[in-house]
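debug: dumping io for the single-chain case to check the tokenizer round-trip. Nothing else runs in this session.
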Amino acid sequence: MSYNLVQEINRESSTKYKIFISHASADEPLATAFVDLLEGLGIDPAQIFYSSLAEYGIPMGEDIFEYLRNELLGNKVYVIFFLSDAYYQSAACLNEMGATWILRSEYLTVLQPGFTLREIKGAVNPRKIVLDLNGDCRKSLNSFFEKLKKMFSLENISYSKWERYRDRFMGQLADKVRSEEHILL
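debug: decoded output
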């Protein structure tokens, strides 16, 4: 076995997962509520990359694209796409989607309220099971929790604690839907 291959295997086995929240800035309130959900579960903030909060984003003075490139190449990245109409109108978001596809990073597609499965375009596979935030999403969120428990070794999180954080997130989701319905009236 070559030295470079051994180095790569060692890097892969020692690298922790990092969650990258790919979202449009217009969708920041709901994406931030989702980050709060991750924090509540005990995911180390150093394992979350989320550009809308300074403590999770790109450090001052860094080149945005170089920093993002290094994050994607230097970590086992689990990308969470927060899809919406605003997402597809953002060149930066579409670049993130393309980079995820090229790197074959593992990802989760989240459909925000008002955005449907048939609206998925681009490098995201519409046949892959999604986290659909339209309607009652408790079962989908519970499946997501089970996946995170395995990825991040969250065995010490009780199901009742999870339900509290999940229900808080669902309340924020319901508030977002109500406020958007009010705007449409």
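debug: round-trip ok. The mean pLDDT is 86.
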